[in-house]
Amino acid sequence: xxxxxxxxxxxxxxxxxxHTYSFEPAAPAIERLRRNDVPLILxxxxxxxxxxxxxxxxxxxxxxxxENGSLVAxxxxxxxxPPKPATDRVWPRLMGPGYEQIVKLLRDLREEFSFQFExxxxxxxDRVAVLTGLPRxxxxxxxxxxxxxxxxxxxxxxxxxQFTELLRRNHLRTIRGGRxxxxxxxQADKARAMQNLLSMYAEREGDVHxxxxxxxxxxxxxxxxxxxxxxxxxxxxxxxxLDAARRDSxxxxxxxGPVGWNAAINEILDRFQLP
Length: 275
Ligand SMILES: [Mg+2]
What we know:
Blueprint: E1 2-9, H1 27-35, E2 40-43, H2 48-57, E3 64-66, E4 71-75, E5 90-94, H3 99-113, E6 117-119, H4 125-132, H5 136-142, E7 148-153, H6 157-169, E8 172-176, E9 181-185, H7 190-204, E10 208-216, H8 222-227, E11 230-233, E12 251-252, H9 257-271
Parallel strand pairs: 1-2, 1-10, 2-3, 10-11, 11-12
Antiparallel strand pairs: 3-4, 4-5, 6-7, 7-9, 8-9
The structure holds magnesium ion.
């Protein structure tokens, strides 16, 4: 049985610079992963449509995890056994309820209980661009949602408690993002999506011991970091570095964003003597 690695990486503040969104400083380690045939899985709160643009710029042809683990998208033929050449078409698989179902429930709850909130489904591209600070073209992609709804809560903390309890009873949960509260399936998270993909790799090549390396900088990365074989904690640009996932196999990068990412991934590849 041989060991092989799969890298699951968060994007904002991890592979991408928090301010410039550049991945250039990580290019040497990205190239080294490619040389060693180590899949790099882009894992983000962004939508599949948003990730696809970056994936093209990275010349990445691997599966991806979008909307905080609400969905896993796999290139056509990627997990075929016997292998066939994979195409660049990707097929999303939902890890929880679909977008329309989530939005319908949110609207029903808002109507019945007079909750004060608005979400992406209430806004057009221009409004999303203003509220996110994204260019309009990117706001269009941010609205192409499949399994989670970001909202702005405008009610009281008491009604928030009632709202989240109702969500829980309806098998949904919330994740606090930088600007929005994200509503998604109760079982949907980055760790579960990671396990789902790992089982597909294991099914394709059973004589391989697949080891997960996960890199992240934020609370929504903790479950993924804890379940990976090797965790890479990137210091947060805010200065509040995750203290979770602290164990012997955890690497704490010394620099934020792609600079720290590059050094940490190189260190792991050195450790396993991958050229
Ligand atoms: Mg991040």
